[in-house]
Amino acid sequence: MNVKQPYVVTAIAISFVVIVIIISTSSNREVASETTSDDRPDVPKAVSNWPQEELRLGQVSGVAVNSASQPVIFHRPGRSFDQYTFNASSHYQHIADGPITEPTVLTLDPRTGKVVGKWGANFFYMPHGLTIDKHDNMWITDVAMHQGFKFKPGELEPSLVFGEKFQPGSFEKNLCMPTSFAIASTGEIFLADGYCNSRILKFNAAGQLMKVIPNKHEFLSLQIPHGLALLESIDRICIADRENMRVVCPRAGLYGLQGRKEPPLTIQEPDMGKVYDVSVRGNLIYAINGPTSGVIPIVGLTIDPQNEKIIDRWSPPDGGFNLPHAIAVCPNGSSLYVAEINPNKIWKFELVPPK
Ligand SMILES: *[C@@H]1O[C@H](CO)[C@@H](O)[C@H](O)[C@H]1NC(C)=O
Ligand SMILES: *[C@@H]1O[C@H](CO)[C@@H](O)[C@H](O)[C@H]1NC(C)=O
């Protein structure tokens, strides 16, 4: 007993010192990582005199950026979405007018904003969302047709069609005014459906339905999911949950079942307003809101989804936005584009370090 006691005391003392060292290094590490995440995000700065020529656009509902860093816009020449477009059962009321006869998809030069390519005439009735995946496939929604489409590069006929033409519905094969797509690098397809069903459908790359978000066990209620963006590094699908005035990011489920019970990340602040669209840059989301009430400014929002916070608010000089409808960050993160309705226009912003 007597012999052992000093050893016990020494052992206790040593473990104490070791514990103190562990605690102090780990708290140092936390401080260090907090300082990095406090770094202020790059600020979107409007490029003046862009586009350099007038484009004469209809309502610009969609924008995406292709692998050549060219912005591609989706617009509604000669047509607008108003209270007479659909009746009470969500049927499109102007089928007899036929599809839009002018090109609806325009590829622009990123430097000058001039049109360098156009297609999509005589097909679409009421353009809405446009997404371009890393293989340059175009994913398009038309709210009048109640359909979503995949177009391979250079092809004018869709290779995948979701929903039935002009047939709104809420079961598996029908959509109702679908708004937007997001495509994972692993090929899974997320489709926001949309104005009436307020659900996200997840399909495999071949177009087979895998999952509906929210499922009946999920505590998540969406109200007009209007835009989507994937944050693949943390396995989240971020949704511009427009009428709920928030961005919500449930699990995307790209990497199996791990973490499937974790609650969605939710970003909601009193001045956020109706969020129309979201786009990802690194670990951040750049978003735009739209008309909500006279007291909520219509601006761009920079969001840190992991901390569930808006970390910056930005807008173009002179007058700001009126109805920004879609946003897209270019693949290397150097710029972003905002599509706007009334006035119908496309904005280019460069992302610059804060002053
Ligand atoms: C990103 O892409 C744009 C357009 O192609 C190019 O002008 C710019 O130099 C690129 N920036 C970086 C940081 O690679
Ligand atoms: C809406 O229009 C469709 C076809 O245009 C029609 O079949 C349907 O009955 C209408 N619904 C209502 C509620 O009026």
Automatic annotation (TrEMBL):
The reply on keyword Ribosomal protein is no
Q: What is this protein called?
A: peptidylamidoglycolate lyase
The SS bond pairs are: C176-C196, C238-C249
**Known EC number:** 4.3.2.5
Among the entry's GO cellular component annotations, what is one?
extracellular region
Write out the function statement from the record.
Peptidyl-alpha-hydroxylglycine alpha-amidating lyase that catalyzes an essential reaction in C-terminal alpha-amidation of peptides. Mediates the dismutation of the unstable peptidyl(2-hydroxyglycine) intermediate to glyoxylate and the corresponding desglycine peptide amide. C-terminal amidation of peptides such as neuropeptides is essential for full biological activity.
* Top-level EC class: lyase
Q: Could you list the residue ranges that cross the membrane?
A: 7-25
Pfam families per the UniProt record, alphabetical: NHL (PF01436)
